[in-house]
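Weekly puzzle thread! Below is a chain. First person to post its structure in token form gets bragging rights.
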Amino acid sequence: MNGHVKSEIKNRIGYITFFHPQSNSMPGELLRKLASEITSMGNNAEAKVIVLKSEGEKAFCAGASFDELISIKDFDTGKYFFSGFAAVINAMRKCPKFIIGRVQGKAVGGGVGLASSVDYCMAVKSASVKLSELAVGIGPFVVGPAVERKIGLSAMSELAINATEWRSAEWAHQKGLYTHIFDTVEELDTEIEKLANRLAASNPEAMEMLKKVFWQGTENWDELLAERAGMSGKLVLSDFTVNAINQFKAKA
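Winning reply:
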């Protein structure tokens, strides 16, 4: 019931897959495994490009694990938990290879952060998005820089402030989060395979240089995201947040 992270290489394409039975929500251990797999695949000469995906149909990633959030009783534990999302984002940022995101279902909170941190993201039309953190008394502090970099401050603040309302995949496409959206998962997978194969045949040195250009200006994110994790780690201890998470869990 703790979920898993798996990786494999086929035809010079590295596939990293994560899963958790609770709508692919992410406990801290799973986040660190995911960050480690991304780093490892980035250093594996056999993989020329990476595809990041999750298992299941309804949810790409439901964000932070509420079970783990509600168990946090001190600041250090809270900061350490939210540093897990920071580790995944920074692993994708530093990875020398392009990462293609496969979003086959809804993305919430940290899930939007993951979709924002890949280099090229494709999704199905049912893959709506929501930054729900403010609704439970926190805020999208750790994922915020990645989301803002991808869709801009205006769209990010729209998601962050109106924290209970879903935005459609079409909205996410218009804002630049998704590069393409498809009617079916089969169409999504076909196009991802086409792009991944093209990239696998491209010049690795050119792609690595281009990725550095794309991520220019984020060199301070190790420190920035650690600071943001501390902000969330403090807020998760508040009575407001504890009560809000318990109410969300009761409805689930």
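Puzzle host: Confirmed. Bonus trivia for everyone else. Residues 75-94 form the longest helix (20 residues).
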